[in-house]
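Protocol step 4 of 5: obtain the predicted structure for the target chain.
Materials: sequence only (see below). No template structures provided, no constraints applied. The aim of this step is simply to have a reference model before the mutagenesis design in step 5. Sequence pasted as it appears in the construct record:
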Amino acid sequence: MSTTYDQTVVTRGRVPIPRPAQPVRSAGRPSAAERVGRGFDLVGALVLLLALLPLFVAVAMAIRLSGPGPVFYAQWRVGRDGRLFPFLKFRTMVPGADALRQEILGTPDADMAARYRSDPRITRVGAVLRRWSVDELPQLWNVVRGEMALVGPRPILPEELPLLAARQHRRHDCRPGLTGLWQVSGRKETTWEQRMDLDLTYVATRSLRGDLRILRATVGVVVRGDGAY
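Step 4 output (structure tokens):
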């Protein structure tokens, strides 16, 4: 599991999140809408996990046969209110890929998408899994655990926190998502600033109806392979 957040202050599994002057979400007991949303996420994730079990077995076998290394990959990501959680994926890269991330990808900029497309750490099986976004399916377990939602801003790495302006930390007012507005609006073809703007738009306007629209749009995005590499 990657732990490359040495310059980030971590206290009891949480990183400090600057609060805007007018936070989107108030502290306290979950609202009725939040409880309904959580119920929808839990039931949806459990149904999908059961339905996709044969696919999970097939993918696990393919990864095992492709070479050395574990089937699953876990990496610390920043969740709601700055809580760190192990973000699960099917492994799509060679063992030890974390140590090469900064050297290969560097800091997000206008050329980031090109570096993603030519990332030499991705295995042959991993490239297929990424094309169809199958590598993300283990995050359904993160949804069951309450660390993620079906829809929300995609969780960032702890070391990416310094890249956020104060207002952009509002993206942490809700659970990160398996898919989200960014996923159906260009994904890795967008710039970092565009991604953050999409996240803030989602947080400010989120609703169950909106989440259903994003889930429907995600099917088309996966089929087309938009920004999937």
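Step 4 remarks: Residues 100 and 191 are 22 Å apart (CA to CA). The longest strand covers residues 72-78.
Proceed to step 5.
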